[in-house]
Amino acid sequence: MTYSVLAMQSWPEILADFEVNWFIYLSMPFIAAFVGWSTKIVAVEMLYRPMEFKGIGPFGWQGIVPRRAGKVGSKTIELLTQNLLKPEELLERVDAKEAVEALRVPLTEAIDEISREVAEQIRPGLWDSLPEAGRRAIQKRIEQETPRVVESLLNEMRADLPRFVDIQYLAVTTLVRNKDKLNKLMRSMGDDAMAFVRRSGIYFGLVIGVVQMFAWALFQNPWIMPAFGFGVGFISDYIALNMLFRPIEPKKYLGFITFQGLLHAQREKITRDYAKILADDLFSPEILFDGILRGPGADKLFALVGKEVNAAIDSQTGIATPLVKLAVGTQRYNALKDGLVRLVVQRLPTTLLEAQDYAMQALDLEHTIIDKMSQLTNEEYESILRPVFKDDEPTMIAVGAILGGVVGELQVVLIEHFGNEPEAVNALPETVRILLHQ
């Protein structure tokens, strides 16, 4: 099949060509719909996969979200802590007495171990030689002192929480270490939206494909196919991505079609999914405790624990402190205190992990996030979600356009191999054929 690069086809030529190549013409809208749909799938998946770089040398690909886990995570958490989660507010919900009650079993075990260890340091065999009533009395005093120590510890942390807990560091570190969690978080905000983007590619592709069919009939220029393929990918991606957020409020089009930006229309569902993933995967008690105990403020936290334990020991010995020092020696007394602090700090991670159920109930993160997000204005709500998509929109549009152009070029190859030259027009003298173009 041959075609003129510049000339417009005459009506007889168009009819003759359609008669022998009708299957090619009729396939154009459907191929364009396929291009619109498939390029959306590829573009969306390229956001998230593969999780790690795959390729040879510098040539390869890694999902945009996993590749920029630090930046995406940092931006997301920054917006969250500004609009939804105030760490100070969350810590206010932790009650010292309730926390100690929730930790009764692990605390009792810890107190028993620490009491025995300290007694052995004072004099080997001392703890076992004490009567049961004596051992219980010592443990009872420690148990009674524990809520006060915990309350004092919480008050100091509340006064300067960023010094001990860096929520942004904790969340970003978690997301970078667990890129699957970041992907899950991002997908929770856009799963239904991305399904809409994929479907919209079919509709836009069909419409543009019809235009492509007429353009091909008129010009039969080999550049039409890749140009329209590029256009299908570019235009459908651009419109679909904007339809995620615009219009903010429901708006009527053509007098009877009501439409609202999809992420606004599905705000309630997106909020629920988003809150659940944040509470379960990003700010679960286990991750929070691990971040607190291993984060940049961990040393300061342990120092604070040591300070409170020292204060509790001095409070318990009270006016008898000089006599105790005289009995065991000042140096040994200080060494005993240091040893006790070390034991408490060593037991802290294990003990805290036992408080997960209480922490989950006290913090109630999932419902807190849902409640906070429901109070946001449409603009504030969008400010949390839009940056996640905004950075990737040009990439998605570019990928869709390029893939569309490639498929369009493949169409040209197929037409060259399977297209037929209309015999009636081909048999005309060259001069007549030229006149038909005029």
Question: What does this protein structure show overall?
Answer:
- It is a single chain.
- With 438 residues, the chain is mainly alpha-helical.
- The chain has helices at residues 11-48, 64-67, 69-83, 87-92, 96-102, 104-122, 126-129, 132-159, 161-164, 167-177, 179-219, 224-243, 262-265, 267-282, 285-294, 298-317, 321-328, 330-353, 356-363, 365-374, 378-390, 393-418, 423-426, 430-437; strands spanning 54-56, 59-61, 251-253, 257-259.
- It folds into two domains: 11-63 and 188-268 and 388-437, no CATH class; 69-178 and 272-386, no CATH class.
- The strands form two sheets. A two-stranded antiparallel ribbon has the order 1-2.
- Helix 5 (96-102) packs across helix 8 (132-159).
- The model is unreliable at 1-6, 323-328 and 424-438 (pLDDT under 50).
Summarize the structure.
By secondary structure, this protein is mainly α. 79% of the residues lie in helices and 3% in strands.
Mean pLDDT: 73
Sum up the overall morphology in one term.
elongated
**Terminus-to-terminus distance:** 21 Å
List low-confidence stretches.
Answer: 1-6, 323-328, 424-438
Count of DSSP E strands? 4
Helix share bin:
over 70%
In the residues, how many domains can be counted? 2
- Main sheet attributes: strand count, strand direction, barrel closure: 2 strands, antiparallel
What fraction strand? under 5%
Radius of gyration: 35 Å
Helix tally equals: 24
N-to-C order of helices and strands: HEEHHHHHHHHHHHEEHHHHHHHHHHHH
Order of adjacent strands in the largest pleated sheet? 1-2
Oligomer: single chain
- Structural category: mainly alpha
